[in-house]
Each structure stands twice: as C-alpha cells, then as structure tokens.
Amino acid sequence: MFGLPEKQLSFLLCASCDTLPTPMSLSRWNIITNPKCALCQTLQPTTNHILTRCSVALVQGCVTSVSPPTELSTSLSRPDLVLVSKDSIYLFVLTVTTNTQQHFLAARARKEDRYGSLLYDLQCTGLAVDLISIEIGCLGHFMPKTLAQVTTACCVSKKTVQSLFEQAARIAISCSYRIFNSRASPEWDLLDLLT
C-alpha cells in the first residue's frame, strides 16, 4: 500500500482498526487495569491522544496539534490541516473536483467563503494567517500556483511538494477509475478503492 515499509503498513492498519497496544486497548484486553498515558497521565488514552493530543508531547515538540486553536476562534469551520508557527497560521483545505480550471476556481471561492470567518477571527489575534486551498482534479490535474503556496508555507523543497502532488494525483486517478468501473453496480467495496 503506497509503497510503505511492512512495519509502517502494519502500524497504519492497526491504527485504523484501533488495535494498537495503547493503554486503552490494553485495558480493554484485560492486560492492564489502570490505563493512563505514560507522559501526561490522562486516563484511557486512545491512539488519537497519543499521536496528536498528549499535552506533554505537545510541549516537548514530539507532536504538533493539527486542530485549529479553538480559543482563538468560535468558528465551526475546520480545515483539513493547520500549521502553526510563532507568528503565522496556515490553514490547508483539500478538494477533489472536476478537471477544469473553472471548477478549480469555483472550489477555491467556496472554500474562501466557508473559511472567511475563521480567517478573520485568527487575523484579529495579530497573527499572519493564510488559507491554502488545494484542488486536485478527479483525473489528477492540479494548479501549478498551488505548488508554490504549499512549498512556501511548509518550508520544504519544490521537489518534495511536487512528489506529494503527484502521489495525490495518482490516488485521485485510481479512485476515479474504480468509481467509473463501478458505475453500474449498486454496491461496491470502498476498501477496494485504492487497490
């Protein structure tokens, strides 16, 4: 799957099925009786807690929160990814749409409208805020301008971002192919979509 090494694939599958040996799972399996996070002592920590929410890991920099800072905004809009630095916040939203520039621009306009109040609330805190709208066409197309935005926001090489976009394009094409081939079937397996 996506060329992942065997151990990473096993981790991904176990995380998806909630069968990683977290304190919560170990308690559920009657292996331990007092499930606590080893770092912050939170009771019954889940995989999500360990990967994204542990307060000690956040302070240590082991994990980075990907949730919008709710204390900074009352907006119910939640982007797909949030990167926060000392003086900037980048909000990333992803859409798979029809393969025309017109549809790409329409999707971007809808997202700018949807996230407008969140952007305003965050800008009022004095931080620089940028909404990065990523549109991937169902046949694998994307706007080159978006590559530059992501490269700048993530402080990574253009080659790295290009590779990520190409992978996303391959996934979009694969999914579109499966959807197309299932067009006459009333039932089809979502798990089989990327194979």
Structural commentary:
A three-stranded mixed beta sheet has the order 1-2-3, with helices on both faces. A hairpin with a 3-residue loop joins β1 and β2. The chain contains eight helices and three strands. α7 (144-154) crosses α8. 45% of the residues lie in helices and 12% in strands. The chain has two domains: 1-65, no CATH class; 66-195, no CATH class.
TL;DR?
It is built from eight helices and three strands, in the order H-H-H-H-E-E-H-H-E-H-H. The chain is an alpha+beta fold.
Task: Considering the chains and any ligands shown, give keywords for the structure.
45% helix, 195 residues, three-stranded mixed β-sheet, globular, single chain, 2 domains, alpha+beta
Global Rg = 20 Å
Task: Output the strand order for the largest sheet.
Answer: 1-2-3
Structure class: alpha+beta
Q: How many distinct domains?
A: 2
Report the biggest beta sheet as strand number plus sense, adding barrel if it closes. Answer: 3 strands, mixed
Low-pLDDT runs = 61-70
